[in-house]
Automatic annotation (TrEMBL), chain A:
Short name of any one Pfam family annotated for the protein: Proton_antipo_M
Protein name in UniProt: Na+/H+ antiporter subunit D
Subcellular location: Cell membrane; Membrane
Domain of life: Bacteria
Organism placement in taxonomy: Bacteria, Pseudomonadati, Pseudomonadota, Alphaproteobacteria, Hyphomicrobiales
Annotated organism of origin: Aminobacter carboxidus
UniProtKB/TrEMBL annotation, chain B:
UniProt main location, coarse: membrane
Entry's family note: Belongs to the CPA3 antiporters (TC 2.A.63) subunit C family.
Membrane topology recorded in Swiss-Prot or TrEMBL: Multi-pass membrane protein
Subcellular localization, as worded in the UniProt entry: Cell membrane
Presence of keyword Cell cycle: no
Membrane spanning residue stretches: 6-21, 28-45, 75-96
Keyword Magnesium: no
Protein name: Multicomponent Na+:H+ antiporter subunit C
Organism whose genome encodes this protein: Aminobacter carboxidus
Listed Gene3D superfamilies: 1.10.287.3510
InterPro entries: CPA3_antiporter_subunitC, NUOK/Mnh_C1-like
GO cellular component: plasma membrane
Length: 519, 125
């Protein structure tokens, strides 16, 4: 009980003085969508304003994420701790090159998807809250990329998960409810595993701050059950990332909601799992990752091949895209298994590419449905004659997803294959090449059947018109992918910086605990 | 005290996982509840269990004089309880809706999203 007039010395635990204005940038990409989501819920019935407000806020998110990345690249990681508490007592938000790059790409994809949704989501969908769910999901995704606290990461996982449930069942069709049941239960089990690991983590270390953990993990010694922790995190995040054999919820659910939701999920959510794996296994449990590398490597090989083979067996474009998401997760896991700077930067570059490319693939499916009247390869035909424009977009997207030039998927795969051959991991290099070959066949067949096959009978009556906003959205994504594929130096440099920041966390730790005041 | 709780947590996990392996959605959901509560108890045990020792630091000291239970895991549990409670409410509604729409709570019969007779894509034209 402080006596009146007596000044309590708080400098040991509290930050003196207000937060620098520029540091607010770290939480702006999270704050903006949360506030917008709340506002959208309040004006739930004025659906005219929903799309406009969502577009403006997404554009603002892209802007703040861009500024944040620029600052992180110029000055190194930036950190801000909540409630004036000194870390590790307060919850820190820490943006490094990895988090800021992922957050920026995610917000670009969300902006594009939002533009696509203007014509795609009808009044009923808006009234049931498509845009509030979208904003809150983006808050969860950005929060997961920018937070510097393990338990806070769990909270952001739950935020985007519960919003994704809302998006997934929007429309309440039979297939959606069926898919959502499997998605919801398996993802809930996955995040519960994450919570178990985090409980043990606190019991072991007495801290949840990632920078603090990265420092202490190397010093704690043999007695601590670090292998158990690392394995639990691997299991929990692999489940979220849909790695084999924990991938069965993804192809069961991602094709059921409107394509726009599939595009957001396929592009963003599995990458949050990959991001969390990078953060926990590479930055915090580096020594334990080395022990698990063999397991992760074979899981990566199996995931790549199962995904590509699954894509070959499907006739619905959205299900093909779902299996290609899984195949891509395997390629990113390969980078985590290799663990070298080359492998990790390949995985990070591939994640950035995959956010754009897989979203584009889903949106392409949506436009093919608008033009050709179906998602099924059994009935789609003659689209090349009907719309050469769409055929050109489909060609570039197929090249990018399969990892062929001039698409964006080529360079990360080159980096990964080289990193794999450098350490003699021939099975990983072979699986990357083979899965790329199988994906080429799967997408080539889509192109042959849907675009080149001649239109049977008088299906011309069913042909629809593509929405202008949808075409613009897809063109933006295709241009971004071409830029990544033709001018890869910027992205290679960015992902190499991000990978070095993970392998040597001293800059990250220094941002949270400046001038050696670590606990 | 901790040993008793550790055994209890183990029993909760075993029962939860056993129920989740069932084919029926309602048993899976009960398993999910037990699983979630097992985690809450686990975190609770992680924070040391002490009876009747308030975690209050006496005046003039920087740390408690005797070992006390750590209140932070209990705050974490509160967060986790709120989240798992809302998830469970959502899952119950979803499962009931699935039962109404699909007419079964047997996961083997839930093949609407992935039909068993899907067939292969066209092999040529």
């Amino acid at each position: 009980m402080a006596v009146q007039g007596e000044v309590v010395d708080k400098t040991a635990a509290m930050i003196a003085g207000p937060v620098a204005a520029a540091d607010w940038l770290v939480i702006a990409p999270v704050l903006l969508p949360i506030v917008a989501g709340a506002v959208l819920l309040m004006i739930r019935h004025n659906i005219r304003w929903h799309a406009l407000l969502a577009l403006v806020v997404h554009a603002a998110m892209v802007g703040t994420n861009g500024l944040l990345l620029q600052r992180v690249l110029a000055e190194g990681p930036v950190s801000m701790t909540m409630g004036s508490w000194l870390p590790p007592f307060g919850i820190s938000f820490t943006a490094d090159a990895l988090g800021a790059a992922f957050s920026l790409t995610a917000s670009v994809v969300a902006l594009v998807c939002c533009a696509y949704s203007v014509r795609d989501i009808d009044a009923a969908g808006r009234r049931y809250g498509f845009y509030p769910f979208l904003m809150l999901m983006m808050a969860g995704v950005s929060g997961a990329f920018l937070t510097g606290d393990m338990f806070n990461l769990y909270v952001w996982f739950e935020v985007f998960l519960i919003s994704s449930f809302g998006l997934l069942i929007l429309g309440s069709e039979k297939a959606q409810i069926d898919g959502a049941t499997k998605y919801a239960i398996l993802n809930l089990v996955g995040t519960t595993l994450f919570l178990i690991a985090t409980g043990y983590l606190y019991g072991t270390f007495g801290t949840l701050n990632m920078a603090d953990l990265a420092t202490k993990a190397g010093q704690i010694g043999e007695a601590a059950p670090l292998m158990t922790l690392a394995t639990l995190y691997l299991l929990a995040f692999s489940m979220k990332a849909a790695a084999f054999p924990l991938n069965f919820w993804l192809p069961a659910s991602y094709h059921t909601p409107p394509v726009i939701t599939g595009a957001l999920f396929g592009g963003l959510l599995t990458k949050v799992g990959i991001y969390a794996l990078l953060r926990s296994l590479v930055m915090i449990f580096a020594a334990e990752r080395l022990v698990l590398a063999g397991v992760i490597g074979w899981v990566a090989v199996a995931t790549m091949l199962i995904g590509a083979l699954g894509a070959l067996a499907q006739s619905d474009i959205r299900r093909i895209a779902g299996f290609l998401v899984i195949s891509g997760v395997g390629i990113m896991l390969a980078g985590i298994a290799l663990g070298s700077n080359g492998g990790l930067s390949g995985a990070i570059f591939y994640a950035l590419h995959s956010m754009l490319a897989l979203s584009a693939l889903y949106l392409l499916g949506g436009l093919m449905r608008q033009r050709g009247g179906s998602f099924s390869l059994h009935s789609l035909s003659g689209l090349y004659g009907a719309s050469p424009f769409l055929a050109a977009l489909a060609f570039i997207i197929s090249l990018a997803v399969a990892g062929l030039p001039p698409g964006s998927g080529l360079w990360p795969k080159v980096m990964l294959v080289r990193a794999a051959l450098d350490v003699g991991a021939w099975q990983i290099a072979a699986a990357i090449l083979l899965s790329g070959f199988l994906a080429t066949i799967a997408l080539g067949r889509v192109f042959i059947l849907a675009f080149w096959r001649e239109r049977a009978g008088d299906k011309a009556t069913t042909a629809g018109v593509m929405s202008v906003s949808g075409c613009c959205a897809l063109v933006v994504l295709v241009l971004a992918m071409l830029a990544m594929g033709v001018l890869p130096e910027t992205f290679i440099r960015l992902s190499t910086t991000a990978a070095s920041g993970l392998l040597d966390a001293s800059a990250y730790v220094h941002a949270v605990f400046p001038v050696g005041s670590g606990s | 005290m901790e040993a008793v709780f550790a055994i209890l947590v183990g029993l909760f996990f075993a029962a939860g996982i056993y129920l989740m392996l069932s084919r029926h959605i309602i048993r899976i959901l009960l398993g999910v509840v037990l699983f979630g509560n097992a985690v809450n108890l686990l975190i609770f045990t992680n924070g040391r269990i002490m009876r009747e020792v308030p975690p209050i630091i006496a005046e003039g000291l920087d740390v408690p004089a005797t070992a006390v239970a750590n209140p932070l895991p209990q705050a974490l549990i509160l967060t986790a309880i709120v989240i798992s409670f809302s998830f469970f409410a959502f899952l119950l509604v979803l499962a009931y809706r699935a039962y109404q729409e699909i007419g079964t709570d047997d996961t083997d019969g839930m093949r609407v999203a992935e039909p068993a007779d899907d067939g292969l894509p066209p092999m040529g034209y």
